[in-house]
Amino acid sequence: MIDRTLTGIARLALRGFFRDLEVVGREQVPEDRPLLLVANHFNALLDAVLVMHALGRLPRFVAKAALWRPAWARPFLWLAGMVPVTRPQDGGDTGGNHSAFLSCHEQLARGGAVALFPEGGLSRAPRLRKLRTGAARIALGARVAGARGLTIVPVGLFYEDKVALRSRALVRIGVPIDLDVELARFGLDDATEDDVEVVQRLTAEIERRLGDAAPMYEHEHEAAVFGTAAEVALRDPDRLPPRPVPLVSREELAGRLVRAPRPERERVHDALARYQLGLSLTGLRDAYLVAEYRVRRLAALFLSAAATLLLVAPFALVGAAVNVLPYWGVHWAGRLVRDPALAASARLLAGVALFPTAWVLAAWLAPWDSWPARIGIVAASPVLGLVAVRALEQAVAVRRTWRGWITLVERRGDRARLRADRGRLVDLVERTARVEDRPGRDEVPAHGPR
Question: Which residues pair with 155 in a beta bridge?
């Protein structure tokens, strides 16, 4: 019951935190086997919540023991069933990790799910770091303990913006590793966690599979450049208001661009900079430059939006009144944290604390003195809050569409030049993505050891 409750709270929090959340590859996760989930670690607590959402249930997370130092955090970590381990870099005594590993073995032997971040800590760049051997040792130890059919599932986590509210996220589940099949391929069916060579080979395979699923950019700037270039190339011009390119498509193309040789990458960078500068000087957005504006379509869009907003206005106003104060609390919770890797986690925790408090307070202050009415207010408050957010987002989208059309009319002399720059960028992106020389990076292969 606790697991289901925590999973429900996490999903509700994510629905408010993100505008869109994509999960791909979910069909690759077996339902009737013990699972060891391994994920990249870019965004602190939010990473764990996304893994939970993708799996559809609460796995037992292996987490650094330092999280247990604040006394107030311990009950929550206990409720979530987290398993503490002491990392060598934290300077503590790692002798107690044996019991933690045994707990993971028992959970997997019962057919449960365990999740961990095998990099051993947060990565400041959107790139998978070298993996530690903990995942391989847990998997091998669990197999000895009776976890037959154990499957290691790589989970790649992508963020359009790690900090901003109402951005987008993508969970890409990679090709799982059937541990029994993998060990048979090595010819080592009786391997244990004490076999150093087997642990290293299995760690390399986990790193390869997770590298194929996770982001592999050198830094945030590189992720922004190739993500934006991919979005321009993939945009559907025949939508009003324009819709964002799905993250899964954007990241697939951006990943191919970032694996191209350096000269091709630099040409894409320069072409994008030229195009973006032109847009900035004219006050246009890419989506509205290529949109198929027609008077009939614009009129239909405005009438439809106006009717929808009028219909939901009473509900949206009530939702805004109930949720506006906790929303600003969540907003400022992120701004008060200087570390970008922790800002989103601070906002998530603030939201989990502030929003339910506001809903209960609204129910308590309501004029209806009956428990069914108060419970109904608490249940309706998050729904009305989402209605308010969606109504505001729709109004902003319509306003931007209108403004894009007006700017395009006023700047029609620049339209041909901008579209020519855009055409050159799209053509360059398509040609770069077809380059055969992979991985082509000057530093290291983009997806780790092969």
Answer: 39, 173
DSSP helix/strand/coil, 154: strand
Region label for 383, one of left (φ > 0), alpha (ψ between -120 and 50) or beta (otherwise): alpha
Spell out a b/e string for 414-432, using b for 16 or more CB atoms within 10 Å of the CB, else e.
beeebeebbeebbebbeeb
Domain boundaries, the chain: 2-213, 220-284+413-433, 295-410
Spell out, as residue ranges, where the chain has pLDDT lower than 70.
66-68, 70-81, 87-96, 436-450
CA angle 129, 134, 139 (to 5 degrees): 120
| Residues 6 or more apart in contact with residue 47 via CB below 8 angstroms | 39, 40, 41, 117, 157
- Beta-carbon contacts of 193 under 8 Å, excluding residues fewer than 6 positions away, are 136, 137, 138, 140, 141, 144, 199
Per-residue pLDDT, 122: 86
115: closest CA among 60, 53, 191?
A: 60
Over residues 393-425, the pLDDT tens digits come to 999 999 999 999 999 889 888 999 999 999 999
Tokens standing for residue 337: 């944290």
**Residue 326 neighbours by CB distance under 10 Å:** 22
CATH number (3.40.1130.10, 1.10.340.30, 3.40.190.10, 1.10.3720.10) of 2-213 reads: 3.40.1130.10
Total-model pTM: 0.89
CB atoms within 10 A of CB 407: 17
Residues forming beta bridges with residue 37, ordered by sequence position: 115, 153
* Helix, strand, coil percentages for the chain (3-state, nearest 5): 60, 10, 30
pLDDT of residue 231: 96
Contacts 24+ apart (CB under 8 A), 414-423: 414/278, 414/282, 415/289, 417/278, 418/275, 418/278, 418/279, 418/282, 418/284, 418/289, 419/289, 419/290, 421/271, 421/274, 421/275, 421/278, 422/232, 422/275, 422/286, 422/289, 422/290
pLDDT in tens, 139-183: 999 999 999 899 999 999 999 998 889 999 999 999 999 999 999
CA distance linking residue 302 with residue 308, whole number of Å: 10
Position 446 scores a pLDDT of 39
